[in-house]
Amino acid sequence: MLGLSAATLAGYLAAIVVLMLTPGPDMMFVLANATRYDARAGAVAALGVAAGEAVHVAAVVAGLATVIAASPVLFTAIRWAGAAYLIVLGLRALRGTGRTGPAAGGPDGGASRAFRRGLLTNLLNPKMILFSVAFLPQFVRPDAGPVAAQLMLLGALFVAVQLTVDLALGLGAGRFARRWGDSRWSRRVDRLCAVAFVALGVRLAAG
User: Fold this and answer.
1) Membrane-spanning residues where (predicted)?
2) Statement: the pTM of the whole predicted model exceeds 0.90
């Protein structure tokens, strides 16, 4: 596989799994959609997050992410935009915690907006830009083939693992909420996710 050793790929996959299991904006967004609406909304949110990460990977391959990371003004603008988006998302969620179920998000249970919001949640996270720039190249081996092809492969594996974890979370949480959850449980999860969004936004703004 492009000359990359099995040990390198195994270490890379292990690192990805650990990172994917660490709570962050993407995971909280998928969980919020799944518990507030349904499993379908959680799955669509996961697809949106994965699409955002695919854009980050493409930017790394094209060299754009390095340019953004090297520009303090541009990076700061993205950081503030991401922080504002997370805080607004959290405040809106707090304001609407009393409304759960499909009616709260329209006829399709919120899935129509889940993809777009998942995409924005990932794209407006400047830490994902730095992560992509700093993390992926560590596993590139100059003697293993074209660097761009290696980055594309590593990036595709990253997106695949992220999508698998987020889909499992979204589908599992959505089905659990539908089968065992009551309105009080759903509201508690809503509030937890909403507070987490605001806290993550404040932390991002603080640098």
Assistant:
1) 12-32, 44-71, 77-94, 123-140, 152-177
2) no
